[in-house]
Amino acid sequence: MSQRNPFNAPSGEYAAAAVAPSLGEAHSSMKVPKNAVWWKKFLAFVGPGYLVAVGYMDPGNWATDIAGGSQFGYTLLSVILISNMMAVVLQSLAGKLGIVTGRDLAQACRERFSFPVVMMLWILCELAIAATDLAEVIGSAIALKLLFNIPMLYGVIITAVDVLIILVLQNKGFRALETLVIVLMATIALCFGIDLFLAKPDMGGVLHGFVPSSELLQNPAMLYIAIGIIGATVMPHNLYLHSSIVQTRQIEQTAQGKREAIRYTTMDSTIALTLALFINAAILIVSAAVFHSAGMTQVAEISDAYHLLTPLLGTTIASILFGVALLASGQNSTLTGTLAGQIVMEGFLNIRIPAWLRRLVTRLIAIIPAVIVTAIAGEHGTEELLILSQVILSLQLPFAVIPLVMFTSDKKSMGPFVNKLWLRIVSWIIAAIIVVLNVYLIIQTIMLF
């Protein structure tokens, strides 16, 4: 049974059908100054892009970056750059969808697709969010063990407490949450900036690494890690998240107001993702400069990298900064993952439950399997669980990317804001690349088990 399609509105605008916005407590809660200079308006839109960007540097990315740098030096920097360019395009589409239609991606799916399809998409998305949160829980627990020698099992349990941080910040307003995320991102960038200085990478090799090499397609091992980097970079829940949190700004509901909001939102996410590019690249560069240069080409695990940095660089500060950055990364991704969980449930099911309950459920879904695996299989089991979480994310990604490109390329949905021909072509090419590479990654990962 197909549901009513509010996309078919006069003049191509989204019909003003009654629908409760996701994150209702923050919706249109932040004012945008009128008749102000451009940079003051831009600052009013700064924030959502950084909440999205944290998903592109979460602990799930660290293992692939470390493995790529230690095994192949600077060569895979081009893959990180290409992945980031894909992310910039997709996140700009997600922001535009939310601004133009007043719906997030989950709500758009609910109103466009049949009930069975909506339920399937919701279940897949919930699995992806649980997998994402699982990676953050494990990453934070690893950081606590490395920095404070807290056993992994206790570290996993401790991560449940950070749900309280979200609740306290949410009560202080959405800007407080955005500020914390930006501070944590700056902390990660500072830590790796110092580690980069200590590692003294070959700048010529770094610049050459950003140029795509034909070796990527000729070396199966290199291709596998390259696909892993792409698969771990674009996170499906970020598309749902971005399409919702851009609606926290009060904008003029006119064509000019929406066009201005799209421009500043795209600037915000592009700058934030550029910072994410720097951090991801820095992880790989440090790995290449320290491990690959020393002939250690098999360093792939986060804990191994932490322990080897000190003897190779001759200072304990390198390992400490690495651990602090990992902890900040895990906590940052946790904040945005739980927000995405609330958005997805409200958007797909159109039901409202208390925010604290939704976030507690999201966290328990991730913590329970992590506790069980850690207790039974130890730390090695958590590493395998981290790999499994990335496979689950890869499975769900096409089911978020394809509807997003489809909706924003539909004249009836977007009216005058519909994707231009060149953008439709680029978007569908990106979607096809992501689908093909993720299917390949899943097949190869399954063959490893």
Brief summary:
This is Divalent metal cation transporter MntH. The chain has 449 residues and is mainly alpha-helical.
Instruction: Evaluate the radius of gyration.
Output: 21 Å
User: H/E order of the elements?
Assistant: EHHHHHHHHHHHHHEHHHHHHH
Which blocks of ≥5 consecutive residues have pLDDT under 50?
Answer: 1-17
The total of beta strands comes to 2
Q: What percentage of residues falls in helices of 4 or more residues?
A: over 70%
β-strand percent reads under 5%
Helix and strand composition category: mainly alpha
Mean pLDDT figure: 83
3D shape: globular
State the oligomer.
single chain
Distance between the first and last residues' Cα:
40 Å
Strand order of the largest sheet: 1-2
Largest sheet: 2 strands, parallel
**Total DSSP helices:** 20
Protein name: Divalent metal cation transporter MntH
Keywords: Cell membrane, Ion transport, Membrane, Symport, Transmembrane, Transmembrane helix, Transport
InterPro entries: NRAMP_fam (IPR001046)
Family: Belongs to the NRAMP family.
What features would you describe in this structure?
- With 449 residues, this protein is mainly alpha-helical.
- It contains 20 helices and 2 strands.
- It has a two-stranded parallel sheet.
- The two termini are 40 Å apart.
- Belongs to the NRAMP family.
- InterPro entries: NRAMP_fam.
- Its main location: membrane.
- This is Divalent metal cation transporter MntH.
Q: Which properties best describe this structure?
A:
20 helices; 76% helix; 2 strands; 449 residues; Divalent metal cation transporter MntH; mainly alpha; transport; two-stranded parallel sheet
